[in-house]
Task: inverse folding
């Protein structure tokens, strides 16, 4: 099952709105003789089970399948994976978790049992839920998983008071940040960051350039420059603007003519797109995992609405001081009981910097 989960991880950022699934076929109850393996392919098809069965061929008869998520039970663009396993003669299926999708939700396991297969569920459940947390969040809550990525000094600053920010963290940390981009469905920044930095928001790791996710700018008034890097490359790399109703129709059309997708959501009390409505709209569009990279006001709005699920915090061993730009703008916390709390999951060296990983404190 650990091998199946490792294979599933290859699909992160590439398979939305589908889950990232891995499948290992072994001979009988053997843990040593692997007959076939597969993982969900880019775009969500073929599924992991289909890939593994194709590699195993006739040897799949009597085999055991380890699958990181319950095999699907519904007819989509491809036949149900549960029935594909049955037709191939797989004798035993071990899954980590059930699929909460209403079209499945135990149905795949029932189909397998009804066909005479031995079925077990729950092996490495926590690891499987962590890997597919974005898909599970979208199915259960209707929104993507939100990871806030920060690169700061020890005192939480992202730039000097004059705006200089390149580079606070080192090259190794920046490479790891690009790997985070490759494992998410979308990168999100606020309009302030987009105007100040004119970023590419691409994955620039050698060999992973094609894994650049959807690029999203939260831009209430459509202020993004039509000559920005994001807009002029929108025909090649999916680029979305999240805005509020009532914007200039001509400007909106100009963005759309450049290949930019406009996502319109209700306006919040601060004049920005309402965070909860924004995430629901992005969930409806199929996104399961969003990496928020800046700036401070966007981070504050999401934290205020309690919509940040994970933190990836790169911390450099330096101090700028109180006149530096904070990573998170003020968002109205006047009592400690209102402070957003997270559980530290890991701390590791990345070059000369630290990467601290946190998850929502439940």
Result:
């Amino acid at each position: 099952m650990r091998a199946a989960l490792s294979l599933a991880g290859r699909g992160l950022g590439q398979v939305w709105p589908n889950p990232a699934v891995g499948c290992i076929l072994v001979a009988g109850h053997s843990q040593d003789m692997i007959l076939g393996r597969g993982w969900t392919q880019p775009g969500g098809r073929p599924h992991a089970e289909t890939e593994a069965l194709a590699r195993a061929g006739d040897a799949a008869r009597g085999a055991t399948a380890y699958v990181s998520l319950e095999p699907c039970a519904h007819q989509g663009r491809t036949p149900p994976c549960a029935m594909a396993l049955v037709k191939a003669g797989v004798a035993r299926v071990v899954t980590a978790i059930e699929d909460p999708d209403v079209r499945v939700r135990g149905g795949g396991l029932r189909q397998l049992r009804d066909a005479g297969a031995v079925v077990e569920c729950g092996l490495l459940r926590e690891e499987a839920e962590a890997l597919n947390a974005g898909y599970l969040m979208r199915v259960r809550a209707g929104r993507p998983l939100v990871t806030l990525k920060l690169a700061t000094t020890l005192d939480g600053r992202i730039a000097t008071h004059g705006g200089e920010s390149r580079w606070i963290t080192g090259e190794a940390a920046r490479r790891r940040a690009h790997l985070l981009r490759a494992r998410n469905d979308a990168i999100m920044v606020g309009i302030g960051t987009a105007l100040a930095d004119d970023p590419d928001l691409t994955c620039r790791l050698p060999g992973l350039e094609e894994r650049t996710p959807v690029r999203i700018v939260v831009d209430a008034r459509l202020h993004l420059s039509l000559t920005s890097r994001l807009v002029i490359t929108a025909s090649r790399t999916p680029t979305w603007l999240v805005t509020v109703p009532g914007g200039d129709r001509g400007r909106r059309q100009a963005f759309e003519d450049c290949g930019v997708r406009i996502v319109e959501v209700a306006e919040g009390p601060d004049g920005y797109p309402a965070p909860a409505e924004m995430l629901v709209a992005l969930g409806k569009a199929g996104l399961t995992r969003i990496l928020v990279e800046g700036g401070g006001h966007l981070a504050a709005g999401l934290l205020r609405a309690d919509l940040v699920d994970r933190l990836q915090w790169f911390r450099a061993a330096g101090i700028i001081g109180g006149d530096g730009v904070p990573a998170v703008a003020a968002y109205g916390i006047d009592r400690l009981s209102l402070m957003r709390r997270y559980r530290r999951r890991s701390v590791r060296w990345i070059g000369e910097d630290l990467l601290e990983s946190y998850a929502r404190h439940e």
Observations:
- The chain has a mean pLDDT of 94.
- The chain is about 25% helix and 25% strand.
